[in-house]
Amino acid sequence: MHLAPLARRLLPAAALVALAACGDSGGPSAPFSASGTSADVQAVNAAFAPAAIQSFTAAGAEINANLGSGAAAAIATAPTARAVLGDQAASTRYAALLAQRLGSGARPSFLMGGVPSQYLGKTFEWNTTTGHYEVGTRAGAPSNGVRFILYAVDPVTFQPASPLNELGYAELTTSSTSTTVTARAVVVSGGVTYLDYSLTATSSGTGGTVDVSGFATNGTDRVNFVLDNALTADGQGGFNLDITYTATVPTRNFGVALKLTLVGGASSGTVTVDLSVHGPHGIVAVKGSDTDGAGTFTVTTNGQNFATITTTNGAEPVITGASGQQLTAEEQTALQDIFSVFVDSLTLFSDLLEPVSSIG
Q: What's the domain range around 177?
């Protein structure tokens, strides 16, 4: 789990803005800027790129190994890539897993294990002999959580590189009520908070919510993100799952907004998508629906028709221009990228959840 590549998967749709300036010649002149759009995308990527964030996400498995697996198994089943649209069974399994974990009005089983009492207030450090994180003697960890020292990561093994080069630390804390659990992760390096987000799970009698929100920054540009899952289940395999994702860069007035709804049962379902990428260099929107892996989505740029995406179960999406013409290879690639924004949104949920899935 590495957030810089993740950001590149979730936000390359902005590159379509620049391409639309060339590809949508039949529409009105659009104020698109290739260089401006590239700078916006690079700013988003850079916000997730600091070494301390990379070290934290690389340590996710070790954090779970020390504190307990919690909801890790549940999150591992979340459909990624084209599973949401291309494999209805995967979407159904994901919704069923959320229903199971959220329970029926009781405290959700996400994060049920909590930080083991013997670790509260403790700091974990990397042991170069054993090749694992272990409790050290340092002070400073929060009394209601733990601290993990972060180190520069080997780009091949994704473990702390030798010799150790300390970058900062991550703190994981928790709070709960009878029906809600919240886990928070904060990554600090050189006195700067580079990543700060929380996961909150709340149960109701017929489902509940799982929400992830926070920010990532490189000290210059900051990306604020919110990823919400709201589930209603009937207890017999039927479900309604609403997923809302937003990411904004205030310094650039740039952002992404996604609304995805899954409605279905044990063997059939429909997904509805409303996605927009917006900023000072233009607006790109994707809207449509898919039932059991087959559907149609319309792409517009600044309100003008640009392309149509057709999905068929088990096959790659087919993309055609607004007038039915074949798009150039460059345009095809850009639209594949924007298509992946919404089908990969659950990957963000998985990646952010692993380091905090064992506490609460």
A: 3-356
